[in-house]
Amino acid sequence: MTTIRLVQGDITRETADAIVNAANSSLLGGGGVDGAIHRRGGPAILDACRDLRASHYGKGLPTGQAVATTAGNLDARWVIHTVGPVWSASEDRSALLASCYRESLRVADELGARTVAFPAISTGVYRWPMDDAARIATETVRDTPTSVEEVRFVLFDDRAYEAFAQQT
Ligand code: AR6
């Protein structure tokens, strides 16, 4: 059984085996939670991302996939980078958002991570409506078989916290 917990706050302050990053395909950093993770985690994370680009993802990490690096100075063993879809009003990209959660849990299982902290993927720069993102995130975690014991959603503000609380 996987326990789902909600907390409000900054994911870079969390203690977990793995912290998930809402990255972009370049894996080379950005704003939002991605920027915060690289800032607090330090340059070891970017170095590892550059190595991954060179070895496996010359064209970038595809949307919906996930890959792990060191967590640098964060209070975690790994950062799992996943690329959420940009919200589209004309195209249903829900399967890609669900894939981010499922693939991150698959990577977490491969690593042997027991606690995994997720941000609300795609709900910032990528503009996914919060209520819908919360539904997809919680349903996907509930429906994914995993050895992860605790999934923690770390919600940055009241609005995100309330949206996730409605689903749990
Ligand atoms: N801790 C927890 N959640 C956070 C934090 C934090 N420190 N900072 C922001 N959030 P976003 P996306 C929330 O934009 O929409 C980047 O530039 C934020 O309030 O970080 O998937 C990447 O490089 C929002 O609810 O990610 C990509 O280019 C959620 O995290 C692009 O943004 C996600 O917002 C990815 O966009």
TrEMBL record:
It comes from the Bacteria. Pfam families: Macro. CDD domains: Macro_OAADPr_deacetylase. The lineage of its organism: Bacteria, Bacillati, Actinomycetota, Actinomycetes, Kitasatosporales. This is O-acetyl-ADP-ribose deacetylase. Residues 1-168 form the Macro domain. It comes from Streptomyces osmaniensis.
